[in-house]
Amino acid sequence: MTEQDISARLVELLSTQQETLGGAWVEAVARTLRGRISLAEVDRELRELYTALIQGLRGDGLDWHGDAYGELRALLAELSRARARQGFTPTETATSVLAVKDVLAPTDDTPSDDIKSYLQLSKVIDALGLFTLEVYAKTREEVISAQAEQLMELSTPVVKLWDGVVAVPLVGTLDSARTQVVMEKLLQALVDTGSDQAIIDITGVPAVDTEVAQHLLKTVVAARLMGADCIISGISPQIAQTIVALGIQFGDIVTKSSLADALKHALRRTGADVTLSGGAA
Predict the structure, then answer these.
(1) Domain with CATH 3.30.750.24 in the chain
(2) In percent, how much of the chain has pLDDT > 70?
(3) What distances in angstroms separate CA 94 from CA 36, 47, 202, one per listed residue?
(4) How confident is the model over 29-53, as a mean pLDDT?
(5) For 263-278, how does the pLDDT look when each residue is reduced to its tens digit (9 = 90+)?
(6) 166 closest CA partner among 188, 145, 148
(7) Residues β-bridged to residue 162
(8) What is the average pLDDT score of the chain?
(9) What's the pLDDT tens digit per position in 129-146?
């Protein structure tokens, strides 16, 4: 049989048994999803895929890259993205496509020519399964990246402590990406609040090395360019020793051991008339 003959035979077989085979495919996939998607939704997705597969075979034979398979590829991409966002595993996602191979598998009574046709179709389905996984993986990467950005935003708040004074309490590791977020949020807060005093509190930063120190210095320089003075607070004895050992120079940047001390210093700079603990002004 020529490739054209195989394609024509597959279109005939799939078309004449569309209702039965499509139903069996839906049933097989629904079992693997265990009710997390409604049966009606699974039925709609897979019957659309089944129809698009016939359309592709009719138009471009076994070449799944062809234009006739365009709708099928689009439907598979939509299914993959939906499964990735819904939290399904790669196996569960691929099974939604590959399960059709078991449904279409020949039996002992299947003519030899039809078995050959099935083997060729099986290769196409395998390729479509890989395509589905590629889209799934790309979507999961996008979801994870978006979640990481959201977590970074949430873990880098800018707090207005007093008129003219804002603070950025940092918790966790400080890397280049997070430093950029800190810088952007701090600079925007300085503009929004009209503050001229900024406190960067590193009490929650587990360790300070040369790279972290450079990130802090960049943030301070950016704030100064906006006309604000910066104070770095949360310098513990251990971090102080590390900074000295590494030869890190903070220059004329004011550092304090606690956020409270930094706030007192910032308030004195602003000239605020505040009575501090113990009656000191």
Answers:
(1) 159-270
(2) 95
(3) 16, 16, 46
(4) 92
(5) 999 999 888 765 555 5
(6) 188
(7) 165
(8) 88
(9) 999 999 999 999 988 887
Q: Annotate the chain with three-state secondary structure.
A: CCHHHHHHHHHHHHHHCHHHHHHHHHHHHHHHHCCCCCHHHHHHHHHHHHHHHHHHHHHHCCCCCCHHHHHHHHHHHHHHHHHHHHCCCHHHHHHHHHHHHHHHCCCCCCCHHHHHHHHHHHHHHHHHHHHHHHHHHHHHHHHHHHHHHHHHHHCCCCEEEECCEEEEEEECCCCHHHHHHHHHHHHHHHHHHCCCEEEEEEEECCCCCHHHHHHHHHHHHHHHHCCCEEEEECCCHHHHHHHHHHCCCCCCCEEECCHHHHHHHHHHHHCCCCCCCCCCC
Tell me which of 3.30.43.10, 3.30.750.24, 3.40.50.11440, 3.30.2420.10 is the CATH number of domain 159-270: 3.30.750.24
Query: For position 44, what pLDDT does the model report?
Result: 95
pLDDT exceeds cutoff 80 at 236: yes
Which structure tokens are listed for 27? Answer: 């049933």
> In the CATH scheme, what is the homologous superfamily, with its name and number, of domain 3-149?
Globins (1.10.490.10)
* pTM summary value: 0.60
Q: Please, where in the chain does CATH 1.10.490.10 lie?
A: 3-149
